[in-house]
Design brief:
alpha/beta, Rossmann fold, Helicase, Ruva Protein, domain 3, 3 domains, 5-stranded parallel sheet, 13% strand, globular
């Protein structure tokens, strides 16, 4: 009698479990934040959403039991750990734990050579990640001033490539703000600055903390007044829109919403116009002084530091500039740093043209060093080498022989030698 009752009870439990399984299969898809969710639904949601608070789901909330509870719990722990490692905060904490600032600096300096103030930029980035990892207030916005071709954009690229490997979920974004306009004018909406960070859905998603670094290229162009046909300074309204984004808070647009409070913003610009205004005020044109002014104009210091007052005097709003605690300027590169950049550029060109050697003689080195100290900085170095190599490489192809490799010698911009040699042939005598 007792045995029959036990069988009846066991059967009843089996029926309940089977009923639960069928109900789970037939039920519509639910959020894992509901009181009951199946394991399959749970992990399907993680794949799609990636931001599910797993810790909120308890074993007793599942709609059916598991034959091997201990096995399930072990699996659950492993999956929780796997999910946790995918979270941005965890990746940042692990990076800070295993990476010294010196290691970080060496990795980026290999790309952005010879800028002593690079250490300040990277120190600020390092501090930003520390603040994010420890849930501290973020006050790391920065303006980076430097002429064209001395490392501003390369700083962004180096950080983007570095963190793509080290902290994959950390977004490093750049936007050309010179294309941002006010409503009614041709150009980009202010929301394009935040495009990779915008979240669809309600305000609940927008209120979640968002982390990342936003580089605003050509930032200086939006600080200078630009007037419409009616006489309005349209850049003043653009500055107001930028302030709404940068000051921190919920930003809403038709593309989505985002909380910008814990984003880091970096304004990039050459600020040449600001320097020219300052230099003209210090060297006013007067009778008998035109020759002196022209001579001074030829010797403009494109690396002169920019201060907050100069930005405001030029047209920047106090409120917007005040949201950037740090202003850093890149300096004129020393000759040793320029030589490193030249040799690195030559190495890249050598690989691209599959040359046996690309040899730069002192005459060519001197020419490129002088070019690097011009208004365009080091940006044109590789292009200059490429143009010279391409022309002579093309001419040399007409004389190509089997089992031979090409060596190009650049004695100067207008003096180039080429030679096809066997793969193992010594070229010291020719050099």
């Amino acid at each position: 009698m007792i045995e029959n009752e036990n069988k009846s009870k066991k059967k009843s439990i089996d029926e309940v479990e089977e009923s639960g399984r069928k109900a789970a299969e037939a039920a519509p898809k639910r959020s894992p934040r509901d009181n009951k969710v199946s394991e399959d639904e749970l992990w399907e949601f993680i794949k799609e959403d990636g931001e599910m608070p797993f810790e909120d789901i308890e074993d007793d909330r599942l709609p059916f039991s598991f034959d091997n509870k201990e096995g399930y719990k072990e699996s659950r722990v492993r999956r929780m750990e796997s999910y946790r490692k995918k979270r941005l905060e965890y990746q940042i904490q692990e990076w800070l734990k295993h990476t010294s600032f010196s290691e970080f600096y060496v990795a980026i300096e290999a790309r952005v050579m010879g800028q002593k103030n690079l250490r300040i930029v990277l120190g600020n980035v390092y501090n930003y990640l520390y603040n994010v990892a420890n849930n501290l207030p973020v006050r790391n916005n920065m303006i980076l001033s430097a002429p064209s071709g001395c490392g501003k954009t390369e700083t962004y690229r180096a950080l983007r490539d570095y963190f793509k490997e080290e902290i994959p979920k950390l977004k490093i974004h750049i936007c050309d703000v010179s294309q941002v306009t006010v409503t009614g004018f041709r150009g980009n909406e202010p929301s394009t600055i935040l495009l990779p960070f915008l979240k669809k859905g309600g305000m609940q998603n927008a209120e979640e903390d968002t982390f990342g670094i936003v580089f605003m290229d050509e930032f200086d162009k939006k600080l200078m007044p630009i007037y419409s046909s009616s006489g309005d300074n349209v850049n003043r309204e653009v500055q107001a829109n930028l302030l709404t984004i940068i000051e921190g808070g919920i930003f809403t647009s038709k593309e989505g919403n985002v909380n910008t409070e814990k984003l880091m913003f970096v304004g990039l610009g050459s600020f040449d116009e600001f320097r020219e205004n300052t230099e003209q005020s210090e060297n006013p044109i007067g009778l008998g002084k035109l020759d002196e002014w022209e001579k001074c104009s030829e010797q403009k210091d494109h690396y002169r530091s920019i201060d907050r007052e100069s930005m405001v005097e030029a047209g920047g709003s106090n409120e917007l500039i005040g949201r950037f605690p740090y202003i850093v300027s890149y300096d004129r590169l020393e000759e040793d740093a320029i030589r490193r950049i030249i040799l690195k550029s030559a190495s890249e060109v050598e690989k691209c043209f599959d040359l046996k050697k690309l040899v730069l003689k002192e005459g060519m080195m001197d020419y490129l060093i002088k070019q690097a100290n011009s208004k365009f900085g080091c940006r044109q170095i590789e292009n200059t080498i490429r143009n010279i190599v391409l022309e002579n490489y093309t001419d040399a192809l007409f004389k190509k022989e089997e089992n031979k490799e090409l060596t190009i010698y650049l004695d100067g911009p207008d003096k180039v030698r080429t030679r096809w040699t066997r793969i193992k042939e010594d070229e010291e005598e020719f050099a």
